[in-house]
Amino acid sequence: MVKINEYIESGILESYVLGAASKEEAEELLFLKAKHPEIRDALFDLEIDLEHIAHQMAISPPPNVWLRIEDNINELKKTAQPEALIVRRGSKSTDSAREKEEQFISVEGSSDQMRVHKAWRWVLLGIFILGKIFLGFAIYFYLQTKEDEREIQALKSELNIQQRHK
Known about the structure:
By secondary structure, the protein is mostly helical. 73% of the residues lie in helices and 0% in strands. It has seven helices and no strands. It has helices spanning 2-9, 12-18, 23-35, 37-57, 65-78, 92-102, 118-165. Helix 3 packs across helix 4 (37-57). The protein is elongated and about 105 Å long. The chain starts with a helix and ends with a helix. The model has no long low-confidence stretch (mean pLDDT 82).
């Protein structure tokens, strides 16, 4: 009787319930559980206690989560079923050659010029013009700051000269 209580107090029940027991420990516990009702009762009590703790610490999701999940599932049901993926097995050398070929998409065109949709031309032109305007403002304010710094230095030197004369 003392050994059963020692076994219960050893922590093996807790590790079993939490899934941390090794395969041998789990087999031993299940064997002893079938033979000894004290171990079975202690294991049941521990499972009930952990279930109560889990319910107390559970965080309920926001109310609209289940509706969004249901909507997503319904959308998946409405979409067409995807085609089955065909997997071909071959030698490693041919697989790597195919992977290298599939990395790039070959595009053939009659011109080496890049074409831009007409709407984007105006957007890009506007961005270019705004860039030039901002560059002009940046240069203006830079020169203005330098001029103000020179003026401040001149005023400081005048103030120093006036303070020396007094």
